[in-house]
Amino acid sequence: MSNPAAVAGRGSITHVIFDMDGLLLDTEKFYTEVQEIILARFNKKFDWSLKAKMMGRKAIEAARIFVEDSGISDSLSAEDFLVERESMLQDLFPTSELMPGASRLIKHLHSKNIPICIATGTHTRHYDLKTQRHRELFSLMHHIVRGDDPEVKQGKPAPDGFLAAARRFKDGPVDSQKVLVFEDAPSGVLAAKNAGMNVVMVPDPRLDITYQDVADQIITSLLDFKPEEWGLPPFEDSN
């Protein structure tokens, strides 16, 4: 699925920016698991409409949405929620697995000398825990922009992270129209579009389809991405 109006911009892509959580690493399930446990204490359920609002945002912003939208803000502050969640996530993050197709795509683009980087809302301490089993793969990135980066004043859907990422490529800033962003979260897709970039969305199948109409292309897995559709070198094994 793609936006016909965006097709004209394809073929001019020179740089690629990846989100991380839920896109390269299967970490969103950890957040879901922990947040379900916390809400159960208040006899409430964590659903995907709430998760969709939280995905991709800075931790404190997501925390405020969580306590306010779930109706527990009188009993649990956003700050206390983060402290409680943190203690549970610390043990889960080091077990993070790669999403299907992530390694193949990263290695392919790197081997073809396409500059690649990550722009994530994750803070440095969490980034290190999540990637500790995959450091060799993540070392292929030209640079990493994290949520606690001083240039990222506002989290997604603000464009700060993606614009900072574009500036840090060699000979940056790169023209936004020549950048292709990969995202799974609605707020991340909006952030990339707010930065003037092209976006391929790889949404979780449980995500409401109404969140998917902003992306230039939607695929069900990174395994389905065809680089040549964006003027990038095709996979060697593509037929």
What does this structure look like?
The structure is a single chain. By secondary structure, the protein is an alpha/beta fold. Helix content is 36%, strand content 9%. It has nine helices and six strands. A six-stranded parallel sheet has the order 3-2-1-4-5-6, sandwiched between helices. Strand 4 (179-183), helix 9 (186-194) and strand 5 form a beta-alpha-beta unit. The longest helix has 15 residues, at 78-92. The chain is globular.
Q: How would you summarize the topology of this molecule?
A:
Elements (H helix, E strand, L loop, with lengths): L14 E4 L9 H13 L7 H7 L4 H11 L8 H15 L9 H10 L4 E4 L4 H8 L3 H4 L5 E2 L14 H8 L11 E5 L2 H9 L3 E4 L15 E2 L21
Parallel strand pairs: 1-2, 1-4, 2-3, 4-5, 5-6
Helix pairs in contact: 1-4, 2-3, 3-4
Radius of gyration: 18 Å
Q: What is the chain-wise order of helices and strands?
A: EHHHHHEHHEHEHEE
Q: How much of the sequence is in beta strands?
A: 5-15%
**Major beta sheet summary:** 6 strands, parallel
Give the end-to-end Cα distance, rounded to a whole number of Å.
21 Å
Give the rounded overall mean pLDDT. 92
Distinct helical segment count:
9
Low-confidence stretches: 1-8
- What general outline do the C-alpha atoms trace? globular
> How is the largest sheet built, in terms of strand order?
3-2-1-4-5-6
Report the strand count.
6
Can you give the helix content as a percent range? 25-40%
- Please identify the structural class as seen in this structure: alpha/beta
